[in-house]
Every structure is written in C-alpha cells, then in structure tokens.
Specification:
The structure holds 2 protein chains of 2 kinds. Chain A is mainly beta. Chain A has one domain. In chain A, a hairpin with a 2-residue loop joins strand 1 and strand 2. Chain B is built from 7 helices and 7 strands; from the N terminus they run ααβαβαββαβββαα. In chain B, a hairpin with a 3-residue loop joins strand 6 and strand 7. Chain B is globular and about 50 Å long. Chain B starts with a helix and ends in a 6-residue tail after the last helix. The chains are: A mainly beta, B alpha/beta. The interface between A and B is medium-sized, with 19 and 41 residues.
C-alpha cells in the first residue's frame, strides 16, 4: 500500500505518471512530494511506486 | 531620510542580527499582479536587501481593483511601476527588474536569488516554474501560491510545506476560472502568507 494525501491505496508497481493520470490529476498542474522530497516532472515516468511510499499531490489552481 | 537612519530604524525594530539577515537576502518575485505587487512591497518594507522583479505586462485599469498600482501607473510596465513605488516607499531596497516572460528557457534570471516567490496567475505556469526551479536550482526555496479567488472565507488560506524547500500558500481549491474574479483583501491575505513565509525562511524558521 502507498499513502497518497493521507489515504492508503493499492497502487504499488505503477509509475507516478500512470498513477496521476488514473486518479484524475492533470500532470501539467501538479507538484508531487514523494517521501519528503519534491519529485521533478522529468522523473514521473521513470519513478515506480512501492509499498510504504508516502505521496502528497498538490494541484495548482489559477489566480494571482 | 538617509540609508543609515533607515537601517538603524529597522534594526531597532527587528534586532540587528535579524535585520542583517534580511539585508543580505535576495528574493525573486515572479509576476507582479495581485500577489507579486503586495509581496514586493511587504518585503521591501521589512528591509529585504535585494528584490528581483520579473513581469512582462503593463498596468491596466482592470488591475487596479487588487494590485498595488495607481492611476498614474496606467500603461507603464509593472516592473517600472513597482520600482517607482518601492523607490518612494523604501528607497534603500536594491531593485533589479526584468521586463520579460519568465519561462524554463530564461530561468537564469533568478540565479542570484535565495528564495523564489511564484506569483503567476496561470495554474500551468505556476507548476512549470516550481518544477523548473526544483530541477535546476534545488538549493533555492520556493514560495508559491494556489487558491485565493472569490469571496470565500479568508480562514481557508494557509501555508503548506512540501518537501524541504517548497511552500504553497492559498486554499489550494478555489480557481479563478470557477469564481470569475479576485478580491483585493483575499489576494492580500495570500500574498501576506507568502511574504511572511519568506521572512520566516530568512530568519531560519522553516516550519509552517
């Protein structure tokens, strides 16, 4: 199990890119924290989720 | 008002050690709209030594309801208008301006800063800037904003820390495309969170 925004999910084995797409996140708008570090977008495809990972995803919204 | 008098006034209020940290700091304010115009003024008033101001746009009448510009600034580049405001308010802040659109291709404009303040309005551009700085300048702190539109409760706006060097201020929910507009005080609350977070980082208070 991995923990995403505080909720446990059975997503081990998927890439971060796959996981974000399947869960309705727009990759162009997100920032992803993985195990207490920010994961650059260039690593979304090549980084695979494993049991025990803790992920925080923030989707930016417009306005400023 | 001389430089010496101004800095001794700041030192009396902030303490010499903290004021020295503020004076030695350089912050890049990326975007000078509702967020950036407020952040820049707050940081200059607090005695931050150097501000790098980046915006490609000119002051328009549609900006005056929430951005810190005056009628006399209409038509000016926001970088020039903000520099004139800061020269009037806080003349000893070192202000560097770049009147360009900041993208991943000219990120070196912020190479000399310690902290990057993301003050764009477009969600994808926010994400691109945060990502570009994270990848290219991993030693820099980033203080971004997301969610300050509409007339929702001001108490929804908070500062969240992601990783070791990224802070995101806002309600992270209310989008300008749903709310249709922004109101001056709610944008100012978010900008104040950003400026306060930046001062806290300079003061080495890293928790939110």
């Amino acid at each position: 199990m991995i923990k995403i925004n505080g909720i446990e999910k059975d997503s081990a084995g998927k890439s971060v890119a796959e996981f974000l797409a399947e869960n309705g996140y727009d990759i162009k708008r997100v920032a992803v924290e993985m195990n207490e570090d920010i994961l650059p977008k260039s690593q979304y495809e090549s980084t695979f989720l494993k049991d025990g990972d803790v992920i925080e995803v923030v989707s930016f919204v417009g306005g400023g | 008002m001389t430089r010496e008098v101004w800095y001794s006034t700041l030192e009396q209020r902030h303490g010499a050690d903290l004021q020295q940290k503020f004076s030695q700091s350089c912050v890049a304010v990326c975007g000078l709209g509702g967020l950036g115009s407020n952040v820049a003024i707050s940081l200059a008033r607090s005695g931050v030594g150097t501000l790098i101001l980046i915006d490609f746009d000119r002051v328009d009448i549609s900006n005056l309801h929430r951005q810190q510009y005056a009628v006399s600034h209409l038509g000016m580049y926001k970088t020039e208008a903000m520099k004139s405001i800061l020269t009037e308010n806080t003349p000893y802040c070192n202000v560097i301006t770049h009147t360009v659109k900041l993208t991943e291709n000219n990120l070196s404009l912020i190479a000399d800063c310690d902290i990057v303040c993301e003050c764009f309005d477009n969600a994808e551009n926010k994400s691109i800037l945060v990502d570009g700085v994270t990848e290219r300048y991993p030693e820099k702190y980033i203080v971004a904003a997301s969610g300050m539109s509409g007339l929702h409760s001001g108490n929804m706006i908070v500062t969240k820390k992601l990783g070791k060097r990224l802070y995101i201020c806002g309600d992270r929910m209310n989008d300008i495309s749903d709310d249709g507009t922004l109101f001056a005080p709610r944008v100012m609350i978010c900008a104040a969170h950003q400026a306060n977070t930046i001062l806290r980082i300079i003061a080495e208070k890293f928790e939110v």
